[in-house]
């Protein structure tokens, strides 16, 4: 009789490490793992095979597993889980891990490792995974003792979701998952000292509210922290905005926290933000940053950023405060708690008279920086902005809960400008790292999390090819994802920078030898569609939205279109380029700016 | 925004676990912070805590960032800026090898004595002096030894502790 048989039914059966791992994942509420098998994780895949509580989604490349898990996490508020093998499995995951680190996405990545005795011997498929991923994760672990396995995995989840969320990697040598391991009871974790104790500083709240009561030109500048804090934080932001009557602008990562169609919303700020958002940021006398981090895509030239404002910065991560822009009031803590405290301190104060400020904003708004003219002759070339506007309007007509992922580039910015969001967690994009190839696997993750929702990947033809193999995953799991490709035959944002900064020398940015996306879709058992002229656009979008399976829509758009407004690198917010006719030097396009990214 | 570069001595209490030092060193290199010297040793076997003393430099904003970024590391228990917190004692140990003979040898021994440097190894041709003190004192000693047959130097980097009765770590943390 084996030990396992002897102990069976006593509740103390001898489990191997892989089984202990899955028990802990189950305890943590994990329902789905995105992964790819390999030698070092075979014991874990064997344990997965023998149970039916946790689903496994087989991706086609480990990078895609991480992006799918990111979108799963971002769209549900849960921790995303990834399982990859040692060596190349782990190194392929690195891009996704850094992406999650930059955008504060809670993930646990489980990687296989060669047996402990072989570590350091250049064994087959060995890589120094904890060494490689140390700066790519919020924290990482190498499990060396079976006795620490269960508690390490529990702590990994706690690290991933606590404070400012982020990716955590647990490296699991094969002998640890094959050999017996104890399912230890949850113990008090060392993390308790890390979590922010108590609410936001009362004096900081009081100083903020005092400034809010006297401000003539106030502005809320909100970020991804509001999304990470949960839907309640979005709700509190809406209440605070209503009560105060202040305008709200958002970073790329914060879109959806405040309803985009709302008149109090100025749109996204930053490099491709709206005229009104950027001018208001430049001209405000009180700037309240909530869960945002003064990224360079937001600030432009730092010494000219919002030069005359009293600045308040609320963030859960104290290292973000005073990192780039020195502020007058710092509020550390969960932005939900900060919003609650601000609402309470504001109390029943009537909304101040900000009519002068709103009149000023209205005049900026009237510039209509996102405006464009679409020739509606049926044979006219489709402008990408028009395609996204129509996609939004026709998706709205379906009345379905809609999730949008994007790749990275011009189409991403146009999507941020023209697609509207009224709920948080519906907008999935790679902000900090700017990872081309994010959108397609992200759509996989969102659709797995929300099987009945409408999930659209707004893509560019270059980006989407970076993880196009995930069409296989989409086919296998019958995910009705809609891939909406704005095909301009260029790496559009690269082309735009080359036009503006490098004398229109389009070095290597032309998408030569593209596949036929309709045939490509068919090869992956999906439906392909194409619109080449405006006259075909609405019909293609309608058929795409009505189809109950995956669709790749190849939308052929104007090749030379640039994304405006644009704050060139090294310029200030009041130096936006509004369109192609503007003198670029007047807009602060300098040699110095050319050195910036 | 002031751009003055300041020097800071920062103490870090960190769990003695695999890779912990690499996290600290990687943080400095990855974010482009300076390390002028760094020392590390286990100081609390029961709690498995090591103490790192790092001498760094940067603008006040960078120094604040260094401390805030160090605090984000999971194994870090606490971070203390000794330069900011008040008076501290900073000491470095140096082993200095001098190879010479005749008058230069006698002179080396005489100067060593005035610095309270102890010869810990003596041959007919050489001394190894052990010297503790502030980095400036050690710099001065090395300069004086240079014409007297200075051959090799090994320095520990600064270890530092606050003056007076207040203590940087007494908290018993759940581990």
Average pLDDT of chain B works out at 93
- Give the C-level CATH assignment of the largest domain in chain A: Alpha Beta
CATH class of the largest domain in chain B: Alpha Beta
Terminal-residue CA separation of chain B? 40 Å
Order of helices and strands of chain B: EHEEHEHEHEEHEE
CATH architecture level-2 label of the largest domain in chain A: 3-Layer(aba) Sandwich
Oligomer: heterodimer
Count all strands of chain B and give the number. Answer: 9
Question: Could you tell me the radius of gyration of chain B in angstroms?
Answer: 19 Å
Biggest sheet features of chain A: 6 strands, parallel
- Alpha-beta content class of chain B: alpha+beta
Distance between the termini of chain A: 66 Å
Largest interface: A-B, 23 and 21 residues
Description:
- The complex is a heterodimer of chains A (597) and B (175).
- Chain A is an alpha/beta fold and 597 residues long.
- Helix content of chain A is 38%, strand content 16%.
- Chain A folds into 3 domains: 3-193, 3-Layer(aba) Sandwich (Rossmann fold), CATH 3.40.50; 202-365, TPP-binding domain (Rossmann fold, 3-Layer(aba) Sandwich); 384-556, Thiamin diphosphate (ThDP)-binding fold, Pyr/PP domains (Rossmann fold, 3-Layer(aba) Sandwich).
- In chain A, strand 2 (32-35), helix 3 and strand 3 (55-58) form a beta-alpha-beta unit.
- Chain B has 175 residues and is an alpha+beta fold.
- Chain B is elongated.
- At the A-B interface, loops of A face helix 1 and helix 2 of B.
What layout of secondary structure does this protein have?
The complex is a heterodimer of chains A (597) and B (175).
Chain A: H1 3-7, E1 15-16, H2 17-27, E2 32-35, H3 42-49, E3 55-58, H4 62-76, E4 80-84, H5 88-102, E5 107-113, H6 129-133, E6 139-142, H7 149-161, E7 167-173, H8 174-178, E8 180-181, H9 202-214, E9 218-222, H10 224-229, H11 231-244, E10 248-250, E11 265-268, H12 275-283, E12 286-290, H13 296-299, E13 310-315, E14 329-332, H14 335-346, H15 355-365, H16 384-398, E15 402-406, H17 410-418, E16 427-428, H18 439-449, E17 454-460, H19 461-464, H20 471-476, E18 482-487, H21 492-501, H22 517-523, E19 527-531, H23 534-546, E20 551-556, H24 591-595
Parallel strand pairs in A: 2-3, 2-4, 4-5, 5-7, 6-7, 9-10, 9-12, 10-11, 12-13, 13-14, 15-16, 15-17, 17-18, 18-20, 19-20
Antiparallel strand pairs in A: 1-8
Helix pairs in contact in A: 2-3, 2-7, 4-5, 4-18, 9-14, 11-14, 12-15, 16-17, 16-23
Chain B: E1 6-15, H1 20-30, E2 37-44, E3 49-58, H2 60-72, E4 76-81, H3 82-85, E5 88-99, H4 102-114, E6 118-122, E7 126-133, H5 135-145, E8 150-155, E9 159-162
Antiparallel strand pairs in B: 1-3, 1-4, 2-3, 5-7, 5-8, 5-9, 6-7
Catalytic activity (chain B): 2 pyruvate + H(+) = (2S)-2-acetolactate + CO2
GO molecular function (chain B): acetolactate synthase activity; acetolactate synthase regulator activity
Protein name (chain B): Acetolactate synthase small subunit
């Amino acid at each position: 009789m084996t030990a396992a048989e002897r102990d069976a039914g006593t509740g103390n059966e001898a489990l191997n490490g892989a089984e202990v791992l899955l028990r802990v994942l189950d305890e943590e509420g994990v329902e789905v793992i995105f992964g790819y098998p390999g030698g070092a994780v075979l014991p874990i895949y064997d344990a997965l095979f023998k149970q039916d509580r946790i689903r496994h989604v087989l991706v086609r490349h480990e990078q895609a597993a991480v992006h799918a898990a990111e979108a799963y996490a971002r769209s549900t508020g849960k921790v995303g889980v990834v399982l990859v093998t040692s060596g190349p499995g782990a190194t392929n995951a690195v891009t996704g891990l850094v992406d999650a680190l930059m955008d504060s996405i809670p993930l646990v990545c489980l990687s296989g490792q060669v047996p402990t005795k072989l570590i350091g011997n250049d064994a087959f498929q060995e890589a120094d995974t904890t060494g490689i991923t140390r700066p790519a994760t919020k924290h990482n672990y190498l499990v060396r003792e079976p006795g620490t396995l269960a508690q390490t995995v529990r702590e990994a989840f706690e690290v991933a979701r606590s404070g400012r969320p982020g990716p955590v990697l647990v490296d699991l040598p094969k002998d640890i998952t094959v050999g017996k391991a104890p399912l230890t009871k949850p113990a008090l974790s060392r993390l308790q000292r890390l979590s922010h104790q108590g609410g936001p500083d009362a004096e900081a709240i009081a100083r903020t509210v005092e400034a809010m009561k006297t401000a003539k030109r106030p502005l809320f500048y909100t970020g991804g922290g509001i999304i990470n804090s949960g839907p309640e934080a979005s709700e509190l932001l809406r209440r605070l905005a209503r009560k105060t009557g202040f305008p709200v602008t958002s970073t790329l990562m914060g879109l959806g926290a405040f309803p985009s169609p709302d008149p109090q919303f100025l749109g996204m700020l930053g490099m491709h933000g709206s005229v009104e958002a950027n001018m208001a940021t430049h001209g405000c006398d009180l700037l309240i940053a909530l869960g945002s981090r003064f990224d360079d895509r937001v600030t432009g030239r730092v010494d000219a950023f919002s030069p005359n404002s009293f600045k308040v910065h609320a963030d859960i991560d104290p290292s973000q405060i005073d990192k780039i822009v020195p502020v007058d009031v710092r509020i550390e803590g969960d932005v939900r708690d900060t919003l609650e405290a601000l609402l309470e301190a504001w109390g029943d104060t009537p909304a101040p008279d900000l009519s002068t400020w709103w009149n000023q904003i209205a005049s900026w708004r009237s510039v209509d920086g996102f405006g464009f003219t679409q020739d509606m002759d049926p044979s006219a070339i489709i402008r990408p902005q028009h395609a996204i506007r129509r996609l939004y309007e026709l998706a709205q007509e379906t009345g379905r809960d809609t999730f949008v992922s994007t790749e990275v580039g011009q189409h991403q910015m146009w999507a941020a400008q023209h697609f509207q969001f009224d709920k948080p967690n519906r907008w999935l994009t790679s902000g900090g790292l700017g990872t081309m190839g994010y959108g397609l696997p992200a759509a996989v993750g969102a659709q797995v999390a929300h099987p009945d929702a409408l999930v659209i990947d707004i893509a560019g033809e270059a980006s989407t090819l970076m993880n196009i193999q995930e069409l296989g995953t989409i086919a296998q799991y019958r995910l009705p994802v809609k891939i909406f490709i704005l095909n301009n035959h260029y790496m559009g944002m690269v082309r735009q920078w080359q036009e503006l900064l490098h004398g229109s020398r389009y070095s290597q940015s032309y998408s030569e030898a593209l596949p036929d996306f309709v045939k490509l879709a068919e090869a992956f058992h999906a439906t392909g569609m194409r619109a080449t002229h405006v006259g075909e656009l609405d019909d293609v979008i309608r058929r795409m939205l009505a189809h109950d399976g995956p669709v790749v829509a190849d939308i052929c758009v104007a090749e030379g279109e640039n994304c405006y407004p644009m704050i060139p690198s090294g310029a200030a917010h009041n130096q936006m380029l509004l369109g192609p006719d503007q003198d670029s030097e007047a807009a602060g396009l300098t040699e110095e700016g050319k050195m910036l990214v | 925004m002031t751009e003055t570069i300041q020097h800071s001595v920062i103490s870090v209490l960190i769990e003695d676990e695999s890779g912990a030092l690499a996290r600290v060193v990687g943080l400095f290199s990855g974010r482009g912070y300076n390390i002028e010297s760094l020392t590390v040793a286990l100081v609390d076997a029961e709690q498995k805590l090591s103490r790192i003393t790092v001498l760094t430099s940067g603008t006040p904003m960078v120094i604040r960032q260094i401390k805030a970024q160090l605090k984000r590391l999971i194994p870090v228990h606490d971070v203390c800026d000794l330069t900011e917190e008040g008076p501290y004692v900073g000491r470095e140990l140096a082993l200095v090898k001098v190879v010479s003979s005749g008058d230069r040898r006698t002179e080396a021994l005489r100067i060593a004595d005035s610095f309270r440097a102890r010869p810990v190894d003596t041959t007919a041709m050489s001394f190894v002096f052990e010297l503790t003190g502030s980095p400036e004192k050690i710099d001065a000693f090395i300069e004086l030894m240079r014409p007297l047959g200075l051959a090799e130097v090994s320095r520990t980097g600064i270890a530092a502790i606050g003056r007076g009765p207040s203590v940087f770590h007494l908290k018993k943390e759940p581990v």
